[in-house]
Amino acid sequence: VAYVVTMLGAFGVVTLLSVGGEGDDRDALTDYRSLFWRRPAMAAVFTVMLLSLAGIPLTMGFVGKFYVVTAGIGASLWLPVMVLVVGSVIGLYYYLRIIATMCAPPPDVMPGPAPVAAAPASFAGALTLAALALVLVWLGVYPTSLIRLLQTTVAYLI
Description:
The protein is mainly alpha-helical. It is built from seven helices and no strands. 70% of the residues lie in helices and 0% in strands.
């Protein structure tokens, strides 16, 4: 559940940023330079999604990784747990790199090519991203309702 919400939000941000202008895909890191200064709400949502992918506390990504690590330790599966931890640290480096790029000063202060301006997001797109970010943080802080729902569903299926 955490991964689905996070990926919907992350790819939603990329899609909304790619829709405007010349219609080019935003697949280069430089396309996100100073996004925080141009579109702070979009940068905030993308930051929350990236932090969830990294497994930072107060997001659903942390809760998901916590349960996976707990299950791995409980089953004495040390190698997969270590791979998860090392992979998370490596991923964190790349996610923080994107966040740092988004928070970089505007292009008029920094040398280099200016990023292409994106068209304003549609109301439905912005509302969807805001809802996904809210769900991501809400269930990261208060995961018990989702956990109970999943336990009830599993007990019903068994």
